[in-house]
Amino acid sequence: MTYCLAFLFALAACAQKLDACEDCEMMLEGMPAEIQSSTLLSPVGEPGEPLKIDGIIYKPDGKTPAPGIILYVYHTDATGRYTPGKDQKDARRHGHLRGWVKSDANGRYSFTTIRPASYPNRQDPQHIHPIIREPDGIYYWIDEFLFDDDPKLPARERERQKPRGGSGILHLTKDASGTWIGKRNITLRLNVTP
To answer: Which CATH number fits domain 2-187: 3.40.50.620, 2.40.50.140, 3.40.30.10, 2.60.130.10?
Structure first.
């Protein structure tokens, strides 16, 4: 009986872990062997407003930079859709605006893309989905990248933030070239339950 109960608890723990990171395994599809600390997600000529986000990934203490952490991000195009790229299989649902960065020796990362549009005919705010993969292979999602100037980001959404990995609400500014610039620091495992 004790063995059966232990087995059932183990199964529940596995299911709970899978539920905590729905579709996270799609980050592995097409993941390059060599990942840099900076990447370009959007191909040349991609419609939309250019956006660059950078930051530092910290260890769980929130102070020590965490090198070698993979951050996978994906988002909608300028029409609010996840338009697939060629050769995508399961990850077609993530669209072609997706990519990976690996934090450098100082925990730094950056990616350049376009500012995502909200889903068509819905009130969801603009967002970028992030998934963290630690060197030991554990992966999990953190709060979406959201933008504080988005009119579809209501007060209730701002208050709902946990924040998993730290606040996902970014303040954007435009540089002289018209590129939106944002910064987000991430703390590993902050408010993430196994």
So the answer is: 2.60.130.10
Query: pLDDT by residue (tens digit) across 79-124?
Result: 999 999 887 888 888 999 999 999 999 999 999 999 999 999 888 9
Q: Is 78 exposed, middle or buried (0-12, 13-18, 19+ CB in 10 A)?
A: middle
Q: Which residues of 106-128 are buried (b: 16+ CB within 10 A; e: fewer)?
A: ebbbbbbbbbbbbbeeeeebbbb
> Residue 171, Cβ neighbours under 10 Å: how many?
11
Given its phi and psi angles, is residue 63 left (phi above 0), alpha (psi -120 to 50 degrees) or beta?
Answer: alpha
Tens of pLDDT, residues 33-84? 999 999 999 999 999 999 999 999 999 999 999 999 999 999 999 999 999 9
State both tokens at 16. Answer: 């709970």
For the chain, helix, strand, coil in percent to 5 are: 20, 25, 55
180, β-bridge pairs: 51, 174
For residue 185, what are the contacts with CB-CB under 8 A and spacing of at least 6?
A: 55, 56, 57, 58, 166
> What ranges do the domains of the chain cover?
2-187
pTM: predicted TM-score of the whole model, two decimal places: 0.87
Q: Residue 12: in which H helix or E strand, if any?
A: helix 2-19
